[in-house]
Amino acid sequence: MSHEEEPQALEKATPSSGLAVAVTDPVQNPGLPPHRERMTDKDPAAMKRAVRTVYTLFYISLAASLWAVAAYMLFPIESGDFGAIRNNNLFIGLGIAFALLAIGIGAIHWSKAIMSDKEHIEARHSTRGQESTREAAVNVFREANEESGFGRRTAIRGSLIAALVASIIPGVTLFRGLAPHGSNDPDHPLVGDPVALLKHTMWKKGDRLAHDPSGLPIRAADVALGSAVHVIPEKLKDLSHHDGYLEEKAKAIVLLMRLLPEQLPAEHNRLEWSYDGIVAYSKVCTHVGCPVALYEQQTHHLLCPCHQSQFDVSRGAEVIFGPAARPLPQLPITVDAEGYLVAMSDFEEPVGPSFWERH
């Protein structure tokens, strides 16, 4: 092409926008890289070692799961000893961690060293709920079984199933810790029975109501109108953690509120259990036992933050919203000769969740 023809040729090749268009050939499919055989594909001895490694890992997982269950029994947390609690958490955690880790490492090693190593291309296509689609799905599972060797390699299959089943056991075992445990208190004749354990708290006649957590007793005159005070028995401060401090506090915690006496209608309240508009109710929600700690002084509503159950203090703490099934148990109170608020007795019904079978 001469220099005189060059501008004319460029003009034909240039679109009206003024941008030159480069015409190239379509990108060619480079294909798959050359297949490189694994050592286990070339050496039967290496394949046997890989198989042994995989099922050994699965059996290690099985042993770790059993160890987690054993640790739960060897280091009981019911004793209240901090050393036992630390060991319980440590060894159960290590058992579960090794159980899951061994399954994961074994599954990865199985897929990398033993399963079929042939590359293939899966074409994209629309999926519809037709018979051909269902048959294709069945074929996929059949091919996966053949390639993985799951159906043929009984040692791996058996060890994997055993490890997976065992890995669930520690979690199931830990649910045992959610149930109430027995007590040496003579006031608990039905040792281990939830009804007896939750029906009786450490409140006794004449026990002073005290601030939580300081343990300072509360005068009736110091309770402001519209206030909500977190309360524990005064004698709770004399207990140590080794003597069941947390267990007793969990059952005995109370919320103290003061309303105008006329805001407590007699048809909805036991006025003999209150003093000058001051009422005390269990702080343990009757749904699943969360602490009821939010008080709205204008509406006199108590709110449980866990599942939004609401209780109306002006109507005997009855349930007005949410999943709770019964009102909060009321603690009967009065004042002593020095003007301190005291309990008239223990709660007259079990505190806490309503799903316990109550007498």
From TrEMBL:
Tree of life domain: Bacteria
Gene3D superfamilies referenced in this protein's UniProt entry, alphabetically: Rieske [2Fe-2S] iron-sulphur domain
Keywords: 2Fe-2S, Cell membrane, Disulfide bond, Electron transport, Iron, Iron-sulfur, Membrane, Metal-binding, Oxidoreductase, Respiratory chain, Transmembrane, Transmembrane helix, Transport
Localization (cell): Cell membrane
UniProt main location, coarse: membrane
Chain segments carrying region Disordered: 24-44
Record field: compositional bias (Basic and acidic residues): 34-44
Annotated Rieske domain residues: 251-342
Membrane topology field: Multi-pass membrane protein
Cofactor(s) recorded in Swiss-Prot or TrEMBL: [2Fe-2S] cluster
Transmembrane segments: 54-75, 90-110, 160-179
Family classification: Belongs to the Rieske iron-sulfur protein family.
Function summary: Iron-sulfur subunit of the cytochrome bc1 complex, an essential component of the respiratory electron transport chain required for ATP synthesis. The bc1 complex catalyzes the oxidation of menaquinol and the reduction of cytochrome c in the respiratory chain. The bc1 complex operates through a Q-cycle mechanism that couples electron transfer to generation of the proton gradient that drives ATP synthesis.
UniProt protein name: Cytochrome bc1 complex Rieske iron-sulfur subunit
